[in-house]
Design a protein that fits this description.
With 483 residues, this protein is of the alpha/beta class. It has 18 helices and 18 strands. The radius of gyration is 22 Å and the shape is globular. Bound molecules: GDP-alpha-D-glucose (GDG).
């Protein structure tokens, strides 16, 4: 399938990817250098892509041993031992990391874009450091650009990158994907550097969003604030740059994930269930980065509510929550973890019996192979994001589960636009989550199978490879100003 794609056929498509998240992280353990993958949608998605197509990925190097493994040009081939593509690392000073990444990206733009009522913390100095971070990435990208390079910049941490890059390489063609929601104007208009943000983004030749709602919100803000012409979804800036704005929902490597899942044997599934004391009990699996947008405490409280309102479920279900550590230096994230642990202790204290605990909370990075095995073993996958650009976990579950499980999915995850047969919940209402869990647990086998088959059809039709092909194909057709 990948061999027939536009990228593989077009010799002029030398992919140069940019994101702050790195797909592989090197770290010290016991005096030795180890390497592991990282949790997060951008890492997972583009790793499967570049493993297939090759290319260069420019990302920050934040692992304790990242500097140990790169060559003189800051490059290392990954995955380790396979060398499928080149990872080029960019180093930040402590100040740039703390202000440009942690504060500007994760305490300003992240809460601004996710409408979950966490107040963004604006600071001028952080915005300056954000500029420096974007400039550094642009400098590093510029060194890799040749005539046939297609530059694909990713996510809210790099919104100014194209503007800096085009000062160095005016003829460069750049596409940008915004992986998180773009909020409505009421929420967006409080951003102090909103015009600068929009004008920089519009220097790209293509911008992608996951849903039509985000695309429309973005275009509305552009029309309100920027001197430009908007013709349907094409924006022409006062300087003459044409930027196309498209809705392109991200997908997963369905075949790859479902193949890995099928390699999981019945014995493996039984072992997992036994390990989590879920042999004769129902297993609910949840996989998230430990982020306040994901509604993790809400899930745990919903389970507590379910046991209180329906005591017949006590000792009959286990929630296994994988909560991979993320942005651990930020106060909001520390508090979110504390809240989740408090909710876990409360429900476990009230209801644990013998070897059974209602909630198993794993605040650690878990290898993808194990996550896929868990999706396969699960009776229910519970996704309760308060707001989520897409949510890849829901699609990974659909690809991995044999069809006897059920997905409970937040109405406020972009994925809910495609996965119509999932059980929808409003995660702001604990009772709604509890009802969703109950509906999924009690659903007749035939209905589950029918719904899961429909969702498998949807997710398998559109893969990460088709998604990337569409993006690159559209980008390739865009004119670059003055070239
Ligand atoms: C952003 C947007 C959008 C999680 N824990 C572990 C682990 N993961 C993997 C999952 C999945 C990925 O991380 C999470 O992706 P999501 O899409 O669910 O969420 P974000 O990280 O917030 O991603 C999101 C995405 O970008 C893509 O555009 O969908 O809306 O917020 O792949 O499996 N992987 C491993 N260990 C873990 O402990 N190996």
């Amino acid at each position: 399938m990948a061999g027939e794609t536009v990228i593989a056929k077009t010799p002029g498509s030398n992919i140069l990817l940019a994101s702050t998240s790195e797909p592989y992280l090197h770290y010290y353990h016991g005096g030795e250098v180890h390497c592991r993958g990282t949790a997060g949608g951008v890492s997972t998605a583009f790793d499967s892509l570049l493993k297939q197509y090759g290319g260069t990925w420019v990302a920050l190097g934040l692992g304790s041993a990242d500097r140990e493994v790169v060559d003189s040009k800051n490059k290392v081939n990954v995955p380790p031992g396979e060398g499928k593509y080149c990872l080029k690392r960019v180093w930040l000073s402590k100040k740039e990391e703390e202000s440009g990444l942690a504060l500007a990206s994760n305490s300003m733009l992240w809460p601004l874009s996710h409408v979950v009522h966490v107040r963004p913390q604006f600071q001028e100095d952080a915005w300056e450091q954000y500029n420096i971070l974007n400039q550094k990435m642009a400098d590093s990208l510029a060194k890799e650009i040749t005539d046939d390079t297609v530059v694909w910049i990713n996510d809210y941490q790099l919104a100014l990158c194209a503007a800096y890059l085009k000062k160095l390489k005016p003829g460069a063609k750049t596409g940008f994907f915004w992986h998180i929601p773009w909020p409505g104007f009421e929420a967006f208009k409080i951003f102090p550097w909103k015009k600068e943000l929009l004008e920089s983004l519009l220097q790209n030749n293509l911008i992608g969003f996951h849903t039509d709602e985000y695309t429309k919100n973005f275009l509305y803000a552009v029309q309100k604030l920027v001197d430009c012409k908007v013709n349907e979804r094409e924006v022409t800036t006062a300087e003459g740059n044409k930027c196309l704005v498209k809705t392109l929902p991200i997908e997963i490597d369905y075949a790859g994930i479902s193949q890995q899942a099928q390699n999981t044997t019945r014995g493996d599934v039984e072992k997992i269930r036994k390990h989590y004391q879920a042999l004769n009990r129902k297993l609910i699996v949840a996989v998230d980065r430990m982020d306040y947008t994901k509604g993790i405490s809400e899930k745990i409280k919903a389970l507590d509510y379910l046991f209180t309102s329906k005591p017949e479920y006590v000792n009959k279900i286990t929630l296994l929550q994988i909560a991979a550590p993320t942005r651990t230096n930020l106060a909001e994230y520390k508090k979110t973890l504390e809240d989740a642990l408090t909710a876990t202790d409360a429900v476990n204290w009230k209801y644990a019996i013998g070897d059974w605990k209602p909630v198993i909370f794993v605040n650690d990075f878990v290898p993808l192979k194990e996550i896929i095995a868990l999706y396969r073993a699960a009776d229910v996958c519970l996704v309760t994001s308060l707001h989520d650009g897409m949510n890849l976990v829901s699609k990974e579950f659909i690809a991995s589960n044999p069809g006897n499980g059920m997905l409970v999915l937040s109405q406020f995850a972009g994925a809910s636009e495609e996965l119509k047969e999932a059980v929808p919940v409003n995660p702001f209402l604990i009772e709604s989550i509890a009802k969703g869990i109950e509906q999924a647990l009690e659903m007749p086998e035939v209905e589950k199978k029918t719904r899961m088959d429909e969702m498998k059809k949807t997710v398998s039709q559109n893969t990460i490879f088709n998604w990337a092909d569409s993006f690159i194909k559209i980008l390739a057709m865009q004119q670059v100003n003055g070239v």
